[in-house]
Design a protein that fits this description.
Jelly Rolls, mainly beta, six-stranded antiparallel β-sheet
Length: 230
């Protein structure tokens, strides 16, 4: 065979044509063989003839559905983000209340105007909070009214500042034991609150306290499930 596709003086080409009246559910081919003595034209209306010729059998049955991917499990998820827009005093060992939330998706709940976040999926969570305050302060995330979560405490030596932290925490199955008392949440939960753990009361700063015009947050708290425990 040479580079042009000729074999022993013969030329073979297959070109597709579509008759005007043809049923489009079938293919149509016009096959022509040329050599130095003859020209033969053969037409076939069904591609299944060529399937057998080229060694392709019938389509097999559909296989079983595969397992869910890791990334899909990771972000099919619980996300909650709370904010406070007002100036307010938070006494020692008192929790910060949040007026509303920008997102509340999945196995979580917050009642506007309260301090509690309720979670009921065991797993690993990414947490971020930020507080704008007048006085020096120290803040911690409290679990189930009793446990200061390790790595959640941050503070400031100076007033007229903000204190913020990003950390990762674990919620175990045994943490989800509290009753919310809410009709909307029938499960037992893990309760989270942002607590003033400093020696004195602190005042949260809103836009007036910061001499600004546009409304601004005085505190925010976001929690995102990043890995669900099996």
């Amino acid at each position: 065979m040479d580079n042009s596709g000729s074999t022993c003086g013969k030329y073979h080409s297959i070109s597709p044509t579509i008759p005007p009246t043809m049923d489009m559910s079938h293919g149509y081919l016009s096959e022509t063989f040329y050599n130095d003595l003859s020209c033969v034209s053969v037409s076939m209306n069904d591609f299944s003839v060529f399937d057998g010729f080229f060694g392709r059998g019938p389509t097999g049955p559909t296989g079983p559905i595969g397992p869910q991917g890791t990334s899909a499990m990771m972000y099919k998820n619980t996300i909650i983000s709370l904010y406070c827009m007002n100036s307010k005093t938070v006494n020692k060992d008192e929790s910060i209340t949040f007026e509303d939330h920008t997102a509340m998706v999945g196995n979580c709940h917050h009642v506007p105007g309260t301090s509690e976040i309720f979670l009921w999926t065991p797993g690993i969570y990414l947490v971020y909070y930020n507080v704008y305050h007048v006085e020096p302060c120290q803040l911690s995330l409290l679990k189930n009214n009793a446990i200061l979560i390790p790595g959640s405490t941050v503070g400031s030596l100076e007033g007229m500042s903000n204190s913020s932290i990003t950390f990762v925490m674990k919620v175990d199955k045994q943490d989800c034991t509290m009753d919310t008392g809410l009709d909307k949440v029938s499960q037992t939960v893990c309760k989270l609150q942002l607590i003033n753990k400093g020696d004195t009361a602190i005042t949260l700063i809103d836009e007036k306290g910061a001499n600004n015009i546009l409304p601004q947050i005085s505190a925010s708290l976001s929690v995102v499930l990043i890995h669900k425990s099996m």
